[in-house]
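WARN retry 2 of 3 for item q-0093 after timeout on previous attempt; input resubmitted unchanged.
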Amino acid sequence: MIAAYIDEIIMFCAGLWMTSVGFNYLPYPGKPASRPPLLRHFKWMGPLLLAIAIVLAAAS
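OK item q-0093 returned
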């Protein structure tokens, strides 16, 4: 039970970070020219991860 809460907290924090980086609220470490192409998907992956974490927290 405690492990489920820890997993949800980690997912929520990762979703916040992905959303912040995707919308350029936080800078991605490194040079802008060396940004991986995956970062453009953070705009939708971050909010999706946040929603999944919230649904799992409500279900448990």
